[in-house]
TrEMBL record:
<dbReference type="InterPro" id="IPR046520">
    <property type="entry name" value="DUF6697"/>
</dbReference>
<feature type="domain" description="DUF6697">
    <location>
        <begin position="2"/>
        <end position="190"/>
    </location>
</feature>
<feature type="region of interest" description="Disordered">
    <location>
        <begin position="201"/>
        <end position="224"/>
    </location>
</feature>
<dbReference type="Pfam" id="PF20411">
    <property type="entry name" value="DUF6697"/>
</dbReference>
<protein>
    <recommendedName>
        <fullName>DUF6697 domain-containing protein</fullName>
    </recommendedName>
</protein>
Amino acid sequence: MFFVRLYGGSFISTFPDISLDRVNLHGIDNLCFPNLELNPHAPVVPGAPGLFFECERVSGERFVRRVFTPWKGDHTWGYMGNYEFIPVASLSPEEYSMQQETVKRHWAKNVLFRAWGLQTFARVYLRRELGREPTPKELADHSTLPERKRIEKLVSIEEIIDAYANGHEQIGIYCMKCIDYDKDWHSFLCKTYPTFLKDEAERREKGSKPRKKGTRHKLADGNQ
């Protein structure tokens, strides 16, 4: 919630979508919060290199993000630095087989239930039903939330894992290279965070106080 209050966006998004109005105020629109359950090779030491996974093969241009990852065993996220994300070759079936079983299952579950996994989910389903690769139109027709809702129970986590294991699907990879560490910005965050904690504690305390009898009516009467 600290970054949501400070910069906007969503606290559950890997790449928060910050409104243009907020960006115009503070100039920050490149935050990144890799989940270690899905990205076990993301950096956990500032400046260290890492890998960022996607549910399918990646391509396109490089981009830069201010990266935060959770400290192991804690819910606190630490600033790793400003990283360039560089598209590289996807995981091979052999490399996929070397990943921890928990990582494979986390990816399969997210493909099944997250919006960004729609096309991968649809390909796995259609490949089984049709006995071939789906056409672009067939894939588009099945890559919608209502259609997935209709057929989601027909695809298992094991099927998703098998699709990656046999190479029908690929885990895409960005190589993460630290190109800068903004010490002044990090110092600003460290100085701002205690104030945020204090404000949050006060807000919770006010919210937990029982409402006095008749308060709601008095306030309503006063606003008439």
